[in-house]
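Ticket #4471: structure export looks truncated?
Reporter: QA, pipeline team
Priority: medium

Steps to reproduce: submit the single chain below to the structure queue and open the exported record.
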Amino acid sequence: MQVESVQAAASQREADLSSKLEDYAQKFNDRNVLNDKVAELEKELQLARDAIANQVSHILSLELHIFSW
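Actual output as written to the record:
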């Protein structure tokens, strides 16, 4: 009877640990997906910053040209 009790407890512990491992694996995967998304958004942000900087430079160049007349 005691052996069966220990086996049942071990089986329950194994099930609990397996469930926790699955949860951890899902969270790890979710984190990787979010990290990829952040990297993608950072690239888009840099492209937007570069475009804005180019537009500002162009506007300043036009203003300089206009006011130098």
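Status: closed, not a bug. The export was complete when the record was re-opened. Leaving a note from the reviewer for reference: The radius of gyration is 30 Å.
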